[in-house]
């Protein structure tokens, strides 16, 4: 990924904020404002304990941009390091697996969610606007789908696996 | 004064029970909090907490139509104290095997002895097959290996299969 300007740490919004339920809009990946947002997402993600990804609407901005870094996570297999993607979309998804996930924007609950464990995603790098296609699996696949859901206006509660698959979150990272 | 009431509704299931109960509570200005409902062999079973500016007797009276048709409704005032919990690690206990007396007591006793707390529980009886799934919080200092072997011992005695695995949550 091309170098980004220094980012600011932004406040993470929590449900039921409207911005989390509205699909984000495509933006120009070469726009300096998009590059600045990319830097802010990375900066915010880095200072948030346990945070492996952040969607733009989680910091209150309805643009189709997210950051991700699962490289330090024990469940990750394929990883692509720390990056930001703009206007990203799922190309293909297969092999559903159920797992329990939480979200910084839903701090009091966790839930069981089925997600594909084999995933191909395409998107654009901020700054250069270069199109990239990422093929990944396991935890990076899950995290990508969680962030892309945010950009579509969905949180994990929208995909929960059953009426008894929501749990109070007792431990905070 | 607004109190938190615990309401239970039990009885033969039919469509519309939840809509009727919540409709009556809404007319009392009640604010629903946590609740859990399931069917137990066709019987409707619901426990709910509601913050409402009305006493248990008023709520009972509002739900009289349900009791008239045979549903059992109880309403009690919840004490104003924060419940204690276990701060530690989260686990999932799943058990299945031939039905016989003592499965639930046998497998939950070692957890209780270890200071563990069951935070969610489902048991089901199929055609001779008994199933238990429990969410368990274990204190940080519990010897999980010892607990796992105690559970294995008990399940061998009972002739059932039991597994205790971590219920990990990944924050995304
Ligand atoms: Zn999230």
UniProtKB/TrEMBL annotation, chain A:
InterPro entries: Peptide_deformylase, Peptide_deformylase_sf. One of its GO terms (molecular function) is peptide deformylase activity. Belongs to the polypeptide deformylase family. This is Unannotated protein. It comes from freshwater metagenome.
From TrEMBL, chain B:
PROSITE patterns: ACT. It holds the Pfam family ACT_6. Residues 6-80, 92-165 form the ACT domain. This is Unannotated protein. The lineage of its organism: unclassified sequences, metagenomes, ecological metagenomes.
């Amino acid at each position: 990924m091309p170098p980004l300007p220094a980012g600011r740490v932004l406040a993470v919004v929590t449900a039921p904020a409207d911005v989390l339920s509205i699909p984000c809009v495509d933006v120009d990946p070469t726009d300096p404002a998009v590059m600045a947002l990319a830097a802010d997402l990375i900066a915010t993600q880095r200072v948030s304990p346990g945070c492996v990804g952040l969607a733009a609407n989680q910091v209150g901005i309805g643009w189709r941009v997210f950051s991700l870094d699962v490289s330090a996570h024990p469940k990750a297999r394929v990883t692509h390091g720390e990056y930001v993607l703009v206007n990203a979309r799922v190309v293909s998804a297969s092999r559903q697996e159920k797992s329990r996930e939480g979200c910084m924007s839903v701090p009091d609950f966790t839930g069981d969610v089925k997600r594909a464990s084999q995933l191909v995603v395409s998107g654009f790098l901020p700054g250069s606007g270069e199109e990239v296609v990422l093929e990944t699996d396991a935890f990076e696949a899950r995290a990508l789908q969680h962030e892309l859901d945010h950009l579509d206006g969905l949180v994990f509660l929208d995909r929960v696996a059953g009426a008894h698959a929501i749990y109070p979150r007792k431990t905070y990272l | 004064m607004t109190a938190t009431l615990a309401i239970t509704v039990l009885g033969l299931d039919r469509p519309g029970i939840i809509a009727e109960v919540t409709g009556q509570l809404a007319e009392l200005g009640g604010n629903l909090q946590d609740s859990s409902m399931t069917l137990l062999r066709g019987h409707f079973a619901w426990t709910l907490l509601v913050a409402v500016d009305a006493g248990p007797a008023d709520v009972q009276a509002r739900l009289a139509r349900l009791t008239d048709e045979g549903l059992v409704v109880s309403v009690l005032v919840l004490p104003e104290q924060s419940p204690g919990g276990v701060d530690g690690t989260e686990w999932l206990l799943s058990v299945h095997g031939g039905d016989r007396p003592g499965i639930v007591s046998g497998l939950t006793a070692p957890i209780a002895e270890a200071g563990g707390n069951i935070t969610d529980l489902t048991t089901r009886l199929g055609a001779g097959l008994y199933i238990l799934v429990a969410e368990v919080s274990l204190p940080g200092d519990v010897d999980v290996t010892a607990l796992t072997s105690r559970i294995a011992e008990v399940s061998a005695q009972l002739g059932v299969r039991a597994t205790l695995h971590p219920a990990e949550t990944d924050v995304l």
